[in-house]
Design goal:
With 129 residues, this protein is mostly helical. It is built from six helices and three strands, in the order H-H-H-E-H-H-E-E-H. The protein is globular.
């Protein structure tokens, strides 16, 4: 089955249509920070806020909070807040989030195999303009 046939099978109205719900999911999951948060949580143990911030180097507090809220609302991340002082909050993947993370791994493998060449090609393209 071709890519086009597979897309038509799953998205009869077209994945490219502006009203396609897949666009919302793609925006949340494949955002820079969404991807890194999902992959960090896929490593196993629940993580606290500061641990997630260390794993996703460069993420601001605002972006991490926004990303976690979105992924939690999407049913991909579980937030476990314990009523203690100081607050103790841990994040983990839901079953849906874990299923998604498993499907992200083949793409991450491909990226690992090709990232250096892609970055090098992009640098050459910028220099030769």
């Amino acid at each position: 089955m071709t890519v086009s046939q597979t897309l038509r099978q799953h998205f009869p109205d077209g994945v490219f249509a502006s009203g396609c719900p897949s666009r919302v999911v793609l925006d949340h999951v494949w955002s820079k920070w969404g991807t890194l948060v999902i992959l960090a949580l896929a490593e196993g143990e629940p993580l606290r806020w500061s641990e997630l911030r260390r794993r996703a180097e460069g993420v601001s507090e605002k972006m991490l909070a926004q990303t976690l809220k979105i992924l939690e609302a999407d049913g991909l991340v579980h937030r476990d807040a314990r009523p203690v002082v100081p607050p103790h909050v841990e994040y983990s993947l839901t079953e849906r989030g874990a299923q998604l993370a498993e499907r992200m791994v083949p793409l991450m493998d491909w990226i690992a195999d090709h990232a250096a060449a892609i970055v090098a090609d992009a640098q050459v393209a910028v220099l030769t303009r």
